[in-house]
Amino acid sequence: MKKSLIAMAAAITVTGIGVNSVSAATYEVQEGDSLWSISHNEGTTVDHLKELNNLSSDIILPNQTLALDAQGAEEIYKVEAGDSLWDISRTYNVTIKQLKEWNELDGDTIHPGQELHIQVNNKVVENNQPQQKESKAVPAQSQKVEQTKAEPVQTDNEPAGKEMTVTATAYTASCNGCSGVTATGIDLKKKPDQKVIAVDPKVIPLGSKVHVEGYGTAVAGDTGGAIKGNKIDIFMPAKADATKFGVRSVKIKVLD
């Protein structure tokens, strides 16, 4: 794995918050690499890599140089009561693994008042103002305009679709006696980069495209005896990653 760090010499200060420059990393694609394997090794996501490198597809070529992080800044976040690493990672669009590495955390436990270092890219810190954790204010278009019902806004990261919260587990095709072929005929051993989830067909029709929080857009291509109701099982190529995923609640959108 070839990785080079490009150091930034500048440091900027945001009112009320110290912000330090952060190095940006690049990765040189090797034979046999995929966006999934690179994102997995580097603690990021396929969608983030595609956005950073302006990729319209998952195709990459040997010797191609990929940016792993945009040049940006470091923000200090003070933990509040009720916070978790999962909540904070979603707020700043980073991974739990990154939060733990940046702050040398051995476990997932954090405490109110604890200060966490968060590396944010230039999209987060704009016009020398830090990104707010949550904003509920809606700018008024006109004081005399009749109030109307707000329509949901679709973004690239949040495609439109039927939303629900489900209980998610993870599985792998790398097990004794596993054929690796899903209920819809997808051979996961031959296509380990395929994003597939197992669903209850009564809740999510087989063949549907489903956007899974933290995983990306997958196809509902498999079923399971324990997958009933609002439950999904997420395919991961590596057994260790599937085991580490455990059981958690995630938000999904059924796109079609």
CATH superfamily of the largest domain: LysM domain
**Spatial strand sequence of the major β-sheet:** 8-12-9-11-10-13
> What is the CATH class designation of the largest domain?
Alpha Beta
How many separate structural domains?
A: 2
Identify low-pLDDT runs. 1-23, 122-157
Topology:
Blueprint: E1 2-6, E2 12-14, E3 17-22, E4 24-28, H1 35-42, H2 46-52, E5 65-67, E6 72-78, H3 85-92, H4 96-102, E7 115-121, E8 162-171, E9 196-198, E10 209-212, E11 216-222, E12 231-235, H5 239-245, E13 248-254
Parallel strand pairs: 8-12, 9-11
Antiparallel strand pairs: 1-4, 2-3, 3-6, 4-5, 6-7, 8-13, 9-12, 10-11, 10-13
Structure description:
The chain has 5 helices and 13 strands. The protein is of the alpha+beta class. A hairpin with a 3-residue loop joins strand 10 and strand 11 (216-222). The chain is globular and about 45 Å long. The chain folds into 2 domains: 2-121, Membrane-bound Lytic Murein Transglycosylase D, Chain A, CATH 3.10.350; 162-254, Barwin-like endoglucanases. A 6-stranded mixed β-barrel has the order 8-12-9-11-10-13. Strands 2-3-6-7 form a 4-stranded antiparallel sheet, with no helix packed on it. The protein is 14% helix and 28% strand.
